[in-house]
Write a structure and sequence with these properties.
Strand order of the largest sheet: 16-17-15-18-19-20
Largest sheet: 6 strands, mixed
Number of strands: 39
Distance between the termini: 39 Å
Length: 997
Amino acid sequence: MLNTVILKNNYQDSINLMLLTNRINELEAVTMSQLMMGTNANKDILENTGLLTDEAKAASPNDLMIVVDSELPEIMDQVLPEVDNFLSDLSSKSFSDVKQASTTWQEALEQLPDANMALFSIPGEYGAAEMETALKNGLHVFSFTDNIPVEDEVRLKQLAHEKGLMMMGPDCGTGIISSIPIAFTNVISPGNIGVVGASGTGIQEVTTIIDRLGNGVVHAIGTGGRDLSSKVGAVTMKDAIVALENHEPTDVICVISKPPAKEVRDEVVQLLQSISKPVVAIFLGEKPTAHEGKVYLAHTLEETAKIAVDLANEVPVKANYFEPVAEPEQTIAEGKVIKGLYSGGTLAAEAGMLISEALGLAGLVKEAGYILKSDGYDVIDLGDDIYTQGKPHPMIDPEVRVKKIQEYAAEENTGVILLDIVLGYGAHEDMVGALMPAIKEAQALNPDLQFVATVVGTNKDPQNYEDAVLRLEAEGVLVTESNAKAVQLALRLKGIELTEEPKAVAAYHGSKITVPAPSDPVMELLNTKPRIINVGLQSFNQSIQAFDGKSEQFNWKPRAGGNQKMIKILNALEDYDEQIAEENQQVMDKIKNAQPFLTDVVPAKDVIPELNEETRTLLHAGPPISWEAMTGPMKGSVVGAAIFEGWATDENQVTALVEAGEIRFIPCHHVHAVGPMGGITSAHMPVFVVENRLDGSTGYCTMNEGIGKVLRFGAFSQEVIDRLNWMKDILGPTLSGALRQSVTGINLSVLIARSITMGDEFHQRNFAASLNFLREVAPFIVTLQMDEQDKFDVMKFLADTDQFFLNIMMAAGKSIVDTARKNAKGTVVTTLTRNGVDFGVRIAETGDEWFTAPVNLPKGLYFTGFSEEDGNPDMGDSAITETIGVGGMAMVAAPGVTRFVGAGGFQDALSISDEMAEISIGHNPTWTIPTWDFQGTCLGIDIRKVVETGITPIINTGIANKEAGVGQVGAGTVRAPLNCFEKALEAYAKSLGIEVE
């Protein structure tokens, strides 16, 4: 039985999840489990293992999928605490607190402004785009990340070369820069040898032998295993050789490569022949019979290291470095074969090559993880994709090798099992201890079975080379000082002696070239300690910082939720950053410098011409919608407005008018107006008039009706109609009379600035602003010549209606954004609104064009007797407040309201506002928030930031009953749907001529 839990927006590193999966699989009641991020590639893995459930199918790349196969129905009661403990433990042990780590490139570059390298350990499907970003920011790239298409590798390496940068990788497992170990690497003494390698464990084997021979390495530059392929052309290898030639502390250059393309190998050798420094090179798979010109050619990794040390010590290079191993005390029976189980691909290739040469076998292959598969002799690279897909690398996790030991130990023809034990940063903290139970079990099962091991490491490694060797030998494992010697010993156990012929120096008959000059950034990299932005696995910071390098942790997660189309658009838009920034600044300046003044209250028909036309017209909230699509509360508001206008006397008559086409509907936003909830506005309803004196734009909004059964929530009883008539006949004219006595009107920006310091956020809480408004108008009201009871009723209504200012704020917001929208370009959001069916967004660039997606149901608190089942999907133009940076965007300003809207306490309010700042371009200094260290409200919601982060604006809102006529049933918050912003971003890109499929 499959059990699934999806942890939304909970990105975790894949290696950690692999280790966590192993822990969950150890639970007795678990048949099988898999914990993975919800990428398409990971879903394929789940499908292949029979673990893909409907819940997992719906997960996003930023969601953590937990799928467990168990016969125990309540298994998740055991699994989830284990998951929580594991992730909590990671957090407590992490390099830096999550809040201190960067979450964007901008933050990382601000935290480490002198960064010169980015280290990547993220899923390959997102790697190329992120590496391109790093290169465009002037950073060298070290890519532990693999599974990058070769076409992307070629493009990235060419880009790096053009910019004078180094692109190390992809699939670059190890490196040393200025004696600082990076990624999966050993601690090597500093020295005068510079290594360039298209082979991770090849670099590790050579550098650790150099260290144990008493010399050291200043740089070990990994290129990635495909660098010397015909497609890539050794771009990184050549740039690194040129740099080391010009690096004064480097006296000897050591080149290591997996089998290269012949034409590329010849180009590399030509370059090596053209430089001045001594060179030793190994092209794995070749068996050189002579050295070539000034390039000493090695057959094994051990020989490579020994030649490098002699060159570094200015000792003449020997004709032969072969050393026979001591004759073993016993040999294996005839017909027994050798099996190699390697965690390092290059070590496996070297073993396969030597065994094949000695026995005349069919040679190396590369299929299903096998390096050699001939006449019963198997050498397997357990780090091959077939073994690591969805699982940790065997250097980290012994599971796959343990199973293979058990499998081969049970085969009668197995005489020797060859193993590599790789030490160093990133590797298992005790691989000897992890493998020893399986080795002992195999020895007990087959007493004649011999284990031969090589340990790749130094005494400075965290696991300690000497300690590892002694522990293995204590359990009867035969240990040699190199992989080549381990193979030699395995063959001697069969009675076969391996030899090497001496090599003389032959003349180089090819041409030489003029060595190009290295770039300044590459030389700066080699002459200073690296300053690294670590994008991915946090543990990679340990070795950097332990050896006096600098690093900034970037807690990366997939850009744009892993949406490849959006990622491509965002990448393409980076070329327009300066243009977009300038356009957005113009929009934000208009918002920041707005001068909204409340000048009057008038019947809507006096300022909205469309309401005076022959066709009966009602305005509604949100983007355009038809009567048929309207939800219950909006239809209820339509009924109430029609009765109020005298067009009908009951619901049936209103319905008949609509169905006969006698009532038309226009969005409030299309006529410079906004309306709360249903937003229904008719000709005789009084509206606030707010003038933005920055350019004369005006915004209109109906007045707040108070609480209880009200039109905006869909109620249309006689009580509602009576209140609307009172507002038309008494409240509206009274406020109009008061405002007209004021010389300038009420300066709303000042009133807002004052009220935000008193705890208002202007959507769900307007208590201070409503009282400040009453303070402004009360002196004028008391001087009006009108019925004293009416005067009292008006003053009492204003005093009692805590949310009265909301509608004034909405009109102010509309006047502000309509100014900002004029002749505007860029990616700033200029409208957020909803109609109960669709959420609508407009942006500066595209003017009146709507980008819509299905609206969400609010989450929050419900009045007694109601629940989420009664709630209507969100609606209303009141999100104009969030558009200009208040409301939910400024939750921290009103900590008192957070519990009412279901957000929790002050820390939650602070977190929400901090999150909203991540999708905003800046802050508005006009409205500062004391509880936010006097930062201004958020300014300029940027669709690029929304799409990139997946963070959408949060809206504070009331909740209407889904049935017409009932009214408000709660309050809470709602998130804008991401798809609106994705559509807007795609349209913006098209306006620049960017088309992405």
